[in-house]
Design a protein that fits this description.
This protein has no helices and seven strands. The radius of gyration is 14 Å and the shape is globular. 22% of the residues are buried. Strand 3 and strand 4 (56-57) form a beta hairpin. By secondary structure, the chain is mainly β. The chain has strands at residues 16-25, 28-36, 43-49, 56-57, 73-80, 83-89, 99-103. A four-stranded antiparallel beta sheet has the order 1-2-3-4, with no helix packed on it. A three-stranded antiparallel beta sheet has the order 5-6-7, with no helix packed on it.
C-alpha cells in the first residue's frame, strides 16, 4: 500500500506522485516528491510525518525551486556545510541530461 496517495481532484499532484526522498529533521520525517496533474506542469512537493506512515502535505505545495524545469526528477536532499542542498536529475531536457543542485538559503529546511 502507498504511504501517500495522489492529491485530491484539481490539486497540482492529482494525477501522479513519485520519486520520494525522505530525510529525518529533528523529530519529524520530511519527504520531497515529484508530482503533477493533467492541467499543470510537474512540480516538486513536500510532506511531513512523525511515524513514516501518515503524511501531511505542506500547505504551500508545490515548491518553487529555482532551476526546476518540471522535467527534473528524483530529488535528493542532504545537509552539507550547514546548508541544505537538493540535487535532482534533470531527465532529458532539450536533448541533454545531467544533474542540477539547488542550495537552500540557510540552515533551515521547510
Amino acid at each position: 500500500n502507498p504511504v501517500m496517495d495522489i492529491g485530491s481532484a484539481g490539486a497540482w499532484d492529482s494525477q501522479r506522485i513519485g520519486d520520494p526522498w525522505i530525510i529525518r529533521v529533528s523529530n519529524a520525517w520530511v519527504m520531497y516528491y515529484y508530482g503533477g496533474s493533467h492541467s499543470g506542469s510537474p512540480s516538486m512537493g513536500l510532506a511531513y510525518s512523525t511515524d513514516l506512515s501518515s503524511w501531511t502535505r505542506y500547505t504551500d505545495n508545490p515548491l518553487s525551486i529555482s532551476g526546476f524545469t518540471g522535467r527534473d526528477i528524483r530529488p535528493s536532499v542532504i545537509q552539507f556545510g550547514g546548508r541544505w542542498l537538493m540535487l535532482f536529475d534533470n531527465g532529458i531536457s532539450y536533448g541533454k541530461s545531467g544533474c542540477a543542485i539547488f542550495a537552500a538559503g540557510g540552515p533551515r529546511i521547510r
